[in-house]
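Report of the visiting student (M.T.), summer placement. My assignment was to run the structure pipeline on a short list of targets and document each run. The first record concerns DNA-directed DNA polymerase.
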Amino acid sequence: MRFSWLNGRAPSLDDRQRQRLEALPGVASGALPLRDQRFVVLDLETTGLNTSRDLVLAIGAVVIDDGAIQLGQQFERTLQRDNHQVSESVLIHGIGPDAVAAGSDPAGALLDFLEFLGDSPLLAFHAPFDQRMLARALKHSLGHRLLHPFIDLAELAPLLFPQANIRQGGLDDWIAYFGLQVQQRHNASADALATAELALILFSHARRQGMDSFAALEERLAGWRRRQRAQSL
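After the run finished, the structure tokens were exported:
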């Protein structure tokens, strides 16, 4: 599949879509206390795990604001994809060809998500994957560069709870560790909600350790990564 942004051609957007892009806000500074900062917790379902080739099939997101999950602020879209074939990933997330064929136009769905996101920082579990997949989808469909910062809860959890001895664990491992009651998994919206519940636990613990802003979490994570790299040498 050839992408227009790889061969120098901008995506074809109508006037209304361009106006919506131009009206998007900037990115928050991340200096607010965690309780005062609005966060968007993101989960993507994709055609596979190759960030250079696979496509975003579904976007699920939920908002954390005022120190709580705002169930009235949730986002869910399935994206229409041409010639979508059944693959191993369908066995996990269950998004088959019929659901994809009935999905939303990718450009419109991604614009809807950007407006939902606003200037908020993003949280995800194994965030680098979601960040690369989302950035690629935005560039391909909208010619838009993703600038919003992410925090990876898969890094933050072992930083804050080393006693759990879960160094490379998945979301299910942390759900089990904290005894969270999750009704559904491997659905973008359900996974975003489970990730948001984990985030609230981590934020509460971070505040007790003197980390009370997105910027403070980023700074502590940067030091943690340096130590992890040094220990692996």
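The chain is about 45% helix and 15% strand. The two ends are 39 Å apart (CA to CA). I thank the supervising group for their guidance throughout the placement.
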